[in-house]
Amino acid sequence: MRRRMLLVGLWAATTVVAVLVGVFAVSTVGATIRDRGPVGDEVARDVSVPSSSVPDPEGPAVSEEISGEWGAFLVECRDTWAYGVGVRPDKDAGWRIVSWEKGPDDDVDAVFSDGRNSVDLEVFCNRGRPTLAELERNTLGEDD
After folding, report:
1. Where are the alpha helices (DSSP H) in the chain?
2. Distance (Å, rounded) from C-alpha 87 to C-alpha 66?
3. C-beta atoms surrounding 132 within 10 Å
4. Can you tell me the distance from the alpha carbon of 126 to that of 123, in angstroms, rounded to the nearest whole number?
5. Cα–Cα distance measured from residue 144 to residue 104, given in angstroms and rounded to the nearest whole number
6. d(CA 140, CA 132)
7. Beta strands per DSSP E along 1-144
8. How far apart are alpha carbons 91 and 138 in whole angstroms?
9. Tens-digit pLDDT profile for residues 19-65
10. CB 36 within 8 A of CB 106
């Protein structure tokens, strides 16, 4: 009986430690994944830009258009804040806007669809310039 109680206690202690480690890992890594914008590592990875070009918070806004077969998403950066300025779907090819985020935020999103496919863009400001963080393509199910 004593051995069984020892094993149950050891199991309970191991479970508590495992849960605490999991919560710590998810909260630490999860914050980095969710806040994909101006995270220190994201900015530091772009070694092609000299470190002296860090934008001044009072500096000018920088705009860039992210475009493809779906159309275009115009994003403006003011320091580390991203603004979705406008979207332009390629209506001739059947694309439309599902949603888009105006900001200001650390990143802004736009979703385009042509009925069969969707394209989800996520843009953040890297050293004050709009940078495509993620482009996700999905095939949509058939409507019956």
Report:
1. 2-34, 40-45
2. 10
3. 14
4. 9
5. 39
6. 23
7. 62-68, 71-78, 81-89, 96-100, 107-113, 117-126, 129-139
8. 19
9. 888 877 776 665 555 554 444 444 444 445 444 445 455 667 899 99
10. yes
